[in-house]
Design goal:
By secondary structure, the chain is mainly α. It has helices at 2-13, 66-69, 76-99, 103-131, 136-139, 146-170. It starts with a helix and ends in a 5-residue tail after the last helix.
Length: 175
């Protein structure tokens, strides 16, 4: 068995092996004896089922310039307005439940200075991290994500508009 295997391999390689069991030209045709038979082997390329790995290109660092942060498409305006709307909506509902004043009465009875002071303080507190280059996405995790904050702010903005519109149509406080 080993001799026939060696004989077969030698025939493909073109060399002769002399064995007592088989003559040197037992597997070769008479024309091919003494010639080298070239053998070519070509492997097929194996295609992977997984998509090719692409290295993500790093995002350019966001600008920390004041006017870039407060630009229309910058990170500041929607985040600051959303935070102010969340505080404003919660406090408007709380004061309305406690005193029975509608939104317009709350602003007329000393609420305007409180609104301006709160807006200035929260705007400054929201701008400081952005000016230092810290993004909200880098600090978010779990349930409290940056996207959740934006959506809550959007709903609070709609809530304030709906509260004011409802009180206008009703002619008084919501509750």
């Amino acid at each position: 068995m080993a001799a026939s295997s060696a004989m077969l391999q030698s025939c493909f390689a073109g060399s002769r092996i002399y064995s007592a069991a088989l003559p040197s030209n037992a597997l070769l045709s008479p024309k091919r004896v003494g010639r080298v038979t070239p053998v070519r082997c070509q492997a097929e390329e194996q295609r992977s089922q997984e998509p090719p790995v692409t290295v993500p290109t790093p995002k350019p660092k966001e600008s920390t310039r004041f006017f870039d942060i407060l630009a229309f498409s910058g990170p500041g305006p929607e985040r600051i307005n959303g935070r102010l709307a969340m505080i404003g909506f919660a406090s408007a509902i709380a004061v309305e439940l406690a005193r029975g004043d509608d939104l317009a009465a709350q602003l007329m009875n000393g609420g305007l200075p409180w609104f301006a002071g709160t807006a200035a303080l929260l705007s400054a507190a929201s701008l400081v991290p952005l000016l230092k280059g810290v993004s909200a996405q880098s600090k978010s995790g779990g349930v409290m994500t940056a996207d959740a904050e934006l959506w809550n702010g959007r709903f609070a903005m709609l809530g304030i508009v709906a509260l004011a519109f409802t009180e206008y149509l009703k002619g008084g406080p919501l509750v």
